[in-house]
Amino acid sequence: MIELTAEEELRYNRQIVLKAIDFDGQETLKESTMLIMGLGGLGCAASQYLAVAGIGKLILVDFDTVSLSNLQRQVLHDDSRLAMPKVESANLSLQRLNPHVELEAINQQLDDDALLALLQDVDVVLDCTDNVETRNQLDRCCEQSKTPLISGAAIRMEGQISVFTYEENTPTYRQLSQLFGNAPLSCVETGVLAPMVGIVGSMQALEAIKVRLKIGENLCGRLLLIDGFTMKIREIKIPV
């Protein structure tokens, strides 16, 4: 187990005092590696909370660049980073948030072989993308490598989140997508309210920590549906 430094003990004190985490849990987070696919609205929200929570290494994967329309909701980027690769912009911001976290930025679209090679050393994956093809690829590769996947989505004033652990008799993302179909909706066509991606991304970070530490009850087998317009939350059981 990697021990915490005195500075880290003070930095993470408010987490360490939680009985479910304590020193052992914080040390587990320090030796953990999490992969964040997509550094848009969801990825920006999730990665900043994972960074400040003390995840030892974050692998950032995206192949897009920062544009002006991103700045309404993608909080790690700013006007000075326009046209910069999103992973590089996010890397700079996360370094400032927590210099103790190791960051790896991958500015490319990965094929299955490259993704599977990465997953050999990854404890949890966060799907922060906005397209069906990448979501299906993550589901396929995470199932093969048995790497837990935290899936989130936000559009308009609605959000959803679920967890796939790929343990026996648990659903995959394919079962979820079959419930709603594969209509390629995106915020470009339908819009999205900025706080919605913050809510869902933060919840993804929370579920990633819970899954890694094996604490609480995660969303495996359940889909949480958040209606930001009415502030109502529903839960659907995902069939196996």
Structural class: alpha/beta
> Residue ranges: pLDDT <50 for 5 or more in a row?
none
Largest sheet: number of strands, sense, barrel closure: 8 strands, mixed
Fourth CATH level, the homologous superfamily: NAD(P)-binding Rossmann-like Domain
Biggest sheet strand line-up: 3-2-1-4-5-6-7-8
Strand tally is 8
- Strand residue content: 15-25%
Radius of gyration: 17 Å
Order of helices and strands: HHHEHEHEHEHEEHHHEE
* Helix run count: 10
- The first-to-last residue Cα distance is 36 Å
Catalytic activity: [molybdopterin-synthase sulfur-carrier protein]-C-terminal Gly-Gly + ATP + H(+) = [molybdopterin-synthase sulfur-carrier protein]-C-terminal Gly-Gly-AMP + diphosphate
Protein name: Molybdopterin-synthase adenylyltransferase
Pathway: Cofactor biosynthesis; molybdopterin biosynthesis
Function: Catalyzes the adenylation by ATP of the carboxyl group of the C-terminal glycine of sulfur carrier protein MoaD.
